[in-house]
Amino acid sequence: MRTQALPGNRRLALLAGAVAVTLLALVLVLRAGGSEDVPPASEAAKLVPETALVFASVSTDGERDAVKRASELARRFGAYEPNRDALLKRLSGGDEDVDAGRDVAPWLGDEAAFALVDTGQSTAGSIIAVEVTDEEKARGFLGRNPRDPIRKVYKGVDTERYDRVTIAFVGGFLVIGQDPTVQAAIDRDKAGAKALASDATYRRALEGLPEGRVVTAYASADGLRRLLAPQGNILSGLSAMLDQPALQGVALAAEAEGEDKLRVHVHSALDAAAQKRARSAFEEFEPQLLDAVPQDALGYLGASGVSAALQNLIVSAAGGAGGGDVAQILGRLRTELDKETGGDLQRDLLKLFEGEIAVVIQQQTPAPILSILTRTEDESGTRGALDRLRAPLAKLLRPQGEAAPTWKAQDVEGADAWTLTLPNGAAITYAVTGGRLVLSSSVEGVRRIARSEDSLKDADRFETVLGNRPDRLGTLGFLDFSQLLELGEQTGLNDSPTYLSAREDLRKVRAVGISSTSGEGESTAEILVSIP
């Protein structure tokens, strides 16, 4: 199997197609009704190859309470109906507007799905499968397309090709894709060829997902790394968050919880042996540093033993070849600092970050303050290690041909805070106080943390999304989304037409919470989005 990354524009188009089809299925008119929740239909996975890179299925069964809740939640967003109508019009292939209730509901079944599949080439193939209850009415809907198709018969099944898109009715589904992907779906339906539905990793990844889910998505490790990691943007960051050395496949499920929350479950199938070898990546912990996070924090991430994971995130953010350069720079910096301090860096400082850490984001313009907290049982020893580190660090960060920057000390809430300001204006500040080491991008960050009396964990917005968190976790995260938007608008976000078009819907999101746990051969994360 080739794992070459897809060309940039092609990748983006395929990923956009995946999102579009998922939204299409979600926003299709959902039949009225409601009964107790049952698991969603999952027959489409029988038409998709077991080597699928990405697969997403959406329940369109309006008899499920879960679908009804999701539909009601979606209708709170102004983009709901315009996106629905535009996607339905695009699916029809014609220029005529589509009435969802009149033109789609009479033939729509209980499931719509999308997959990206490996073709053995540098570009992935795609397949859309929509369950059909009335083939004649579905054909009437497709008949809106004014172009004349090329009609062929493949193994007794009629196919119609419009330019590069082929359609056929296979096993109760309307299947849309390229000739090879549609023909492969016919082969699976006719001859029972191996399909994703029977793949062991896929089945393991879906284990334990909630029955009330409306969206179910899956990516193999190859799909995650091949389609998301090369993007070099938010998708790359998402890949870094989901990826881990032992990953075999990851499944995601989304469900509406009540009238004002969206819950997303992420379940990863891991190679148990590789997981044991990489246990230092994310160890479970009890979040005690949360007490020191100020109540007005914009964001928070708690974890344990994540020195390597943080480096991976930095490298991922750099992306592509630049990511390798960053890894080399970080490696050289660590080696040189360890040499300059006679081993103190590793012995007395880095070991502090093998335990619990808290990453805190605080609001400030023009850029937010980023701080990292960790505990120390030996404040004097930690100060001594940092004292020895100051001169070598300033030397290593010295711009070529210029004098080394100097450290400045000042009293912050009764503690000595040391700040190194670089010629480009970036700053590093640290202080050891209250049994904690605080590293920050601003002395103001140290000051706010040191003088804070109220903790984030007592804030209502935190409690809303993380009040039911486990006692021990692999990671714990929080984002005040409304504050984030406010900060963005103060720093130029309102100049973006794309943002302005989505601003009112984005403002409906209040906060986001994430927690994760792990077991042998698996890890699970839950993301709760508050939409009051």
Biggest sheet overview: 20 strands, antiparallel
Number of domains: 2
Low-confidence stretches: 1-36, 312-326
Kindly name the structural category: alpha+beta
Give the number of helices: 18
What gyration radius follows from the Cα positions, in whole Å?
26 Å
* Beta-strand residue percentage: 25-35%
Query: What is the end-to-end distance?
Result: 46 Å
What do the pLDDT scores average to? 82
Task: Please provide a written account of the structure.
The chain has 18 helices and 20 strands. The N terminus is likely disordered. The protein has 2 domains: 250 residues, no CATH class; 252 residues, no CATH class. It is of the alpha+beta class. It is 36% helix and 27% strand.
Brief summary of the model shown:
This protein is 36% helix and 27% strand.
SSE blueprint:
Blueprint: H1 8-27, E1 54-59, H2 65-74, H3 80-92, H4 100-104, E2 108-117, E3 125-132, H5 135-142, E4 150-154, E5 157-162, E6 165-170, E7 173-177, H6 179-191, H7 200-206, E8 215-220, H8 221-228, H9 234-242, E9 247-257, E10 261-270, H10 272-277, E11 299-304, H11 307-318, H12 320-340, H13 344-349, E12 356-362, E13 369-375, H14 379-396, E14 407-412, E15 415-421, E16 427-433, E17 436-440, H15 443-451, H16 460-466, E18 475-479, H17 481-490, H18 497-506, E19 511-519, E20 522-530
Antiparallel strand pairs: 1-2, 1-8, 2-3, 3-7, 4-5, 5-6, 6-7, 8-9, 9-10, 10-20, 11-12, 11-18, 12-13, 13-17, 14-15, 15-16, 16-17, 18-19, 19-20
